[in-house]
Amino acid sequence: MKFNDRSAQSLLTVLVFGAVLLFSGGQVVAEEYDEDTYGPEAPIIFVKPVKAVDFSHKVHTMDAGLECDSCHDDIFEMEAGVAEQNDDFTMKSLYAGKYCGACHDGDMAFASNKRCTFCHIGVKGFERIYGAPAPAAH
Amino acid sequence: MKVKDLEKLENEGVETLPSEERRRFLQFGLSVTGVFLGGTVLSLSSAGNAQGALGGMRPATKFPYSPHYTMVMRQNHCVDCERCKEACQTTNHVPSYGYRTTILEQERPISPDQNERIFMPILCNHCNRPPCVRVCPTSATFKDKETGIVKMIYKRCIGCKTCMAACPYNARYFKEENRAVDKCNFCYDTKLKESGGKTTACSEACPADVRVFGDLTDHTSKAYKLIHAPEKVVWVLRPETGALPNVFYMND
After folding, report:
1. Disulfide check for B78: which of A35, B119, B244, B246 has CB 3.0–4.6 Å away?
2. Of A116, A135, A138, the CB nearest to B79
3. Which of 2.40.10.340, 3.40.470.10, 3.90.1150.10, 3.30.70.20 would CATH assign to domain B69-250?
4. Is this prediction's ipTM beyond 0.85?
């Protein structure tokens, strides 16, 4: 009888310990995303010159460890959408080391003429975010 | 048979074999090696230059049409900006409910926690053996004898939509305005002729040079060179249908 008691006790211990692990220790506590430190959380969606490119501050700052002044205000204006209005906001400029191409040169980060769809989400991606436009009347 | 004798053999293919014989041959191939690939028995023993057994498809020396129009998709450059689709709609008066060309989207897992986005432009493949033409009861759709373009005679179309069901590429739609099925004709009447057979609306509009339109009989054309580039894999969509499509895909 004594033996049975002890095995039941140890089983209980394992269960309790397991539960504790599952609910607390098993989960990595995620760092809170702070917009003041890491920039706006909402993605920046570029639609010029082509629809559409998805830029995430989180991937570049919180995940990759870049500072605000790594890009602002030398490569990109702080205000969203300014670079997009420039005539030279093209892939050709990127290949020449401007804008995203300052880092995406194949050395610091993957080259801007590779992995096109990593950033380009297309019209389909754009419509997933903003909804499809109403079909034209006939 | 000895390897030396095997080397002298030509690959006669499986197309001409009766199905019974083909089945026996397949079974034989599977029992010998466990692998059978498109008319080629892969043997574990070295067969040197046994092209007859290992060659598979030989490069085409002749094309059935002249000019033999084709489109090569440099697929990894497509970013789904859909300028091709817009250009096609304007040039060919395509209504919003249908398409002559469109872009498909795919997610391909590249690691356990990461996917890769792939955009795939599609249009009529202008097949050498077009299933749509075969099923049309009124010959409203036909293969152009000169260019190989699969065309439509709208007034002959009775709208039975059998061609839409037969097409392996979903490249046809019913156009209410015409009361007829409509499809891509490589811009034959809208762009191709006026450009001197050089381009289509979609190809011209593509900012990333994904859609390379060209003539396969012209060995200096970019399309021909891309398809025949060394160390590059070129594929077609749904080859198993035997329709022999003329739109090729590659990552370039």
Report:
1. B119
2. A116
3. 3.30.70.20
4. no
